[in-house]
């Protein structure tokens, strides 16, 4: 099983997908990416997840994020499954689904957990930044569908904190106040955060989101 950790480079790979042969790094280009796995084709929870992903295309594009899914079944199976997704979820799948029949990529990314199942991937999610660094990893059991609004929230936080010396508090949503990094003195914060800040405690200082319109 892979021992990938946050901050590691996301392994590159070539893969056959529902949209032809793709190199992962070339597909991502200079933007952000989400790679997420599914236990198998024609599974009910995955069908709903891929439907939501397709419907969220504009939301991902707004954030310069490309999405690629993975399943351990083959391309022809994927194509039939996509027809089902489109018809049952009232959408059009508009992103590639990797055909990982030999489980090479699943093992590369540690998507198979033997205690859960020796052959099927769990619901893994990897968010990858433009430098191809893994910024987030989440693993769900096969029985639990993912919350894609939460993934968008995390991307908003990652992109904000990559460009500003802040962190986002619990349950934060884009546009809400953020936390000033403890490494910044209150004197420096006056210049860095022209909108001002509130000192709740010396270590807990809140400021309006820097890039909020």
From TrEMBL:
<dbReference type="InterPro" id="IPR036249">
    <property type="entry name" value="Thioredoxin-like_sf"/>
</dbReference>
<comment type="similarity">
    <text>Belongs to the peroxiredoxin family. Prx6 subfamily.</text>
</comment>
<keyword id="KW-0575">Peroxidase</keyword>
<keyword id="KW-0049">Antioxidant</keyword>
<keyword id="KW-0676">Redox-active center</keyword>
<dbReference type="InterPro" id="IPR024706">
    <property type="entry name" value="Peroxiredoxin_AhpC-typ"/>
</dbReference>
<keyword id="KW-0560">Oxidoreductase</keyword>
<dbReference type="Pfam" id="PF10417">
    <property type="entry name" value="1-cysPrx_C"/>
</dbReference>
<dbReference type="InterPro" id="IPR045020">
    <property type="entry name" value="PRX_1cys"/>
</dbReference>
<dbReference type="Pfam" id="PF00578">
    <property type="entry name" value="AhpC-TSA"/>
</dbReference>
<feature type="domain" description="Thioredoxin">
    <location>
        <begin position="4"/>
        <end position="160"/>
    </location>
</feature>
<dbReference type="GO" id="GO:0140824">
    <property type="term" value="F:thioredoxin-dependent peroxiredoxin activity"/>
</dbReference>
<dbReference type="InterPro" id="IPR000866">
    <property type="entry name" value="AhpC/TSA"/>
</dbReference>
<comment type="similarity">
    <text>Belongs to the peroxiredoxin family. AhpC/Prx1 subfamily.</text>
</comment>
<dbReference type="InterPro" id="IPR019479">
    <property type="entry name" value="Peroxiredoxin_C"/>
</dbReference>
<protein>
    <submittedName>
        <fullName>Peroxiredoxin</fullName>
        <ecNumber>1.11.1.24</ecNumber>
    </submittedName>
</protein>
<dbReference type="InterPro" id="IPR013766">
    <property type="entry name" value="Thioredoxin_domain"/>
</dbReference>
